[in-house]
Write a structure and sequence with these properties.
Elements (H helix, E strand, L loop, with lengths): L18 E10 L2 E8 L5 E8 L3 E9 L2 H26 L9
Length: 100
């Protein structure tokens, strides 16, 4: 099982830490999806969805190694796509993949 990526579980106080943005993957409305590092453990990266009113939500965490960063980017891109679909659904507009 060489293809399996083992993700670590963020600590319970991860929401109260300071973040340093490593890479912003994209924005949907007021939400930004970013890869961030914690101030107390820069070797651990997180994918977060951050908004002005909603704060931030940790979606995935992994060690700062190239193969794990690639996996975090892929997760972040799927989250962006999901947010785009949700935005259309909530707006009441019909969604068709061909409209992209």
């Amino acid at each position: 099982m060489g293809d399996v990526v083992h993700f670590v579980r963020p600590s319970a106080n991860v929401h109260h830490q300071r973040w340093k943005t490593v890479e912003e993957l994209g924005r949907v409305g007021t939400l930004a999806v970013r890869i961030v590092a914690c101030s107390d453990n820069p070797g651990l990266l997180h994918v977060v969805a951050a908004g002005g009113a909603s704060g931030s939500e940790v979606l995935a965490s992994a060690d700062n190694e190239p193969e794990f960063v690639a996996a975090l980017r892929a997760i972040g891109q799927r989250v962006i796509r999901l947010l785009e679909v949700a935005e259309v659904e909530f707006s009441g507009s019909p969604y068709h993949p061909q409209m992209e």
